[in-house]
Structure formats: C-alpha cells, structure tokens
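Q: Sequence in, structure out?
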Amino acid sequence: MGADKALLVLGDRTAIEHVVGQCLQAGVDELLVVRAARAAPLPPLPEAARVVTVSGDGEMKDSLCAALAAADPSAGTVVVFPVDHALVAAETVAAVAAAVQRDPAAIALPLYRGKPGHPLALRRQVAEELQAPGVTSLREIVRRDPARVRAVPSANPWVLADLDRPEDLRAARAALTAEGWCVVEQMHRHRSRRAYAPAPLLPGQLERLVDAARRASTSSFIQAYSVIAVADAARKQQVASLCADQQHIRQAPVFLAICADLHKIASACQRHGAVVQTQSFELFLQATVDAALLGQNLQLAAESEGLGACMIGAARNHPLELARLLLLPQYAYVLFGMTIGHATDDPLQRGRMPLDGVLHHETYDQGRIDAALAGADDEMRAWARRTNAERGGNRGRPVNETRAWTDRMAQLWGEQSAYVRDRARFCAELRELGFGLQ
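A: Exactly. Output:
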C-alpha cells in the first residue's frame, strides 16, 4: 500500500478505529492492538483497547505471540483481526467467536462464496500452539487439523478483501458511501435531483467518481472527453446565467461540464506531423458519444454513493460563452452539464414509455408504436397527478395533469419549438470552436 494501513482514512475514521469499533460492538472484552515501535502514533482509542508494542522486525506470528502474552490469561477465546480487513462488520466478529464458544471446534473462520477469510476465532489453547517450536504461522495451525475448523457463512465480501493496493483502498472508500443496491436496481431508482444541501463532497470522492466514469466504452480508444469541475461560487453564478439561470447550479457544491474534447487528439496528431480532421462529422459524433457515455457513467456512480445529480442540457444554450468561461481549447465543447451533491428534494420518479416501444426483436415493429405512445401518455398524466397530490407540484408549481407525453413532444420539437429557435446558431458556434461538421 505504501502507507501505514492502520492509519488509512476510511470515511470519517481510520482503519484501526473501524476495527476497534466493530470489535467493541461485537462484545469483545479486551482489545490488544499490536503496533511496531517505530510506527506513527495511533488516534485516540477507547479505554478497552491496549497497544502492545513490538519491534516490527518479525513476522505476523511474533505479533500474535506478543498479544497472547499480554492478554488476560482467563480469556478462553481469541479473535485475530488483521487491519487489512477493516470493513468487516461486528456481526461477523461475533459469529466466529460464538462458533468457537458453542462448538467442539477449536477454530472458526468466515466463509464468503466458498472462500475462507478473516477474522479468525480460536480457543486460547489452540492459539498458544503458535508458541511451540517449529510453528511458523497461524495458517499452519489452521491447516493442521481440518476437523477442528468450522466455517461460518458470511455475506460480507470484506472478509476476503485485503487493503493491499491503492485500488483496494478506493473500493473500501466507495463501499462506505454506497447505497447497497445492485447496478440494475440503482438504474431503476434514478431521478433527477434539483435541490442540494451546502455540504461538499467527501475528500477524493469526485476524483473517485470520475475515475470510475472514464472506464466507459470509448470508440477506437479515443477517450475524447474532459470534465471541468466548477466549485467556485462566482464562477458557478456565471455558469448558471449561461444555462437558463437554473438555481440548482448555484446551489450544488459542484457543477461538472461534460465536454466532447478533440483537443488532445489534435495535439497527438501534431506530435506526429498530422492534422486532425475536425471537419469529419464521424469524428465529431464519436467524441460526442464518448462524452455522453462518460456522463451517464458518472451520474450512475454518483447515485450509487447516495448523491443526487441532474444533467443540464442548457449548457448548450451558449456554447461559445461557456467555452470561454471555462477556458476550453479549440476542438472542445460542453455537451451537457451536471450538478452533483447531497440532494434535499424528493421528486417522484417519472415513468417511461412501455418497454414494447423500446425493445424490438429482430426487426423494428412499427405496429407497436401507437400503443407505446398511448402508454407514454398515460405514464405522464399519472406522474402529474401523483406529483400534485403527493408533492404539491413539481418544484413548487402545479403540473398540468391533462398534457401527455405526445403533447409535450409536439411542443418541444414541432414547428413552434423554442429549443430549435434558441439553438439555431449551435452548429455555427461549434464551427467557431473548431468543429468543421462537413
């Protein structure tokens, strides 16, 4: 890991504080924390925890023997809890200890999906076998006699997961903020959130989310995207004024500009004496799709950690001005914005068009479309009725319960479309940003 594992920060506590807290919650009477003499000081721990100091030059066996020597001799059960497994919960600690206390077996360990993990519980006399000549490790004692080992099923994957690499630490920090839903259910729970508490994101959380989001599929590995995070209040105010004056842009702790970015590809071409073909509509489309995939990944990642988010299509209202505000280079534009933060609103989820209007088998089935449109209309009206009845309207305004999805689409994209009118210069402004769009 390249760092003192006991002092790794996991949420609002260090790893050793997590371990001590779970042991106390599990009913452990005496806690012995084995620590190398030259190690950095630990944070303040509860009185029930005592530090046993060792030289730090030995093996794990030496640390365990030092703890046994310092332990209350009347203790009949010993639990060995490596700090690598700091996210193991109290119920797992209690379960392995109880298995040893009620069963003739002398050793108990948690089993996750058929694989043994930590922490281990042992009868005191078995643990003292470590002190016998020739014994080199705790593993040797566990494997000596399989008949005395009991496996305790566990639903906690952290019984297997060591904090050995930076990616393990990233996963642990993400797990502490995770909602706990599987990916499919998390997708079903999506709602756009437009009101936020002033609390900032956790340290490193935004970096972790964007790092995950950039694992999205990318056409020909071009990775033609960038994310500009805006947290400064004055700059967010300017962004909001360019994005239909949406209040939640000012309110959210961070606004993200999701950019289709060919600047890096242009630089790569220049490095090799080539000229990027920004007039190619195919390349423009690839960059746009790449950025959209990253943005969707990012929103899903944020929601999986309990945050709220909302995509801002109005970021395309004034592409030139927004690009200048964010100092975007040539060949980059903001595809859409996104607010992310701790949501304070609770909007009802809008239904979707019936699945039959989306999923076709083998060929496009036009015969389904009329029924799908009728279903979409019904969903929209039902949402409006529930929103008015249960939420007093949408963002403080009553929702028209008679207007359906098809009505709205005709208004948005028919000949009277304000969208079309307001973005009439969009292609021209993209050309000023370097996109030829031939």
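The longest strand covers residues 332-341.
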